[in-house]
Amino acid sequence: MDEALFQKLKKAKGYLGFPLGKYQSLSDGVLRRDFDYGVVFCNLSPYDFNISISDTLKRIKGKQDTVANNGAPVIGSFLLPKNDGIILLRNNKLTGIGSEGNLPVRFALYQNYPNPFNSSTKIKYSIPNSAKVSIKVYDVLGKEVTTLMNEFQNTGTHEIEFDASKLSSGLYFYRIISGIYSETRKMILLR
Hints:
mainly beta, Immunoglobulin-like, 2 domains, 1 helix
């Protein structure tokens, strides 16, 4: 996501914590992001937008149309007001209120697993506040090999997979940067 769109989305009334990583543009300024439990829509345009859906979803969050935040089903289509956002949940998914004790209270970059690894490994990290997160991999000489992530992330513990199938055996470093926080760990690729 480019920085201008990110800033516009952050300031929008319909931001709703829109997951900024992987989204689909439905129209100029109208974004959709699917996730396991439903869909998030955000309309940054100055016009209302009619959205057709093929699944039966329940409306749980909207900025302007607060009367509709009662879990009423949305079938077929609905109007997404200008400068608004909405979260719709799939009927077959249960939701509830969890303990905030499950949210991380500090940044953490965990050791990749497995390590040493053959062709791919998983990197786990925690962020206590929604923020832009960058994770890069470097070789033993300090040369950047790849950027695994460079996007806004919500509070929580996340995991990303590193595919090293095109790299040669050796020692590599992975580094997370988010605001003033940064941490580096090493990993070993064995063929």
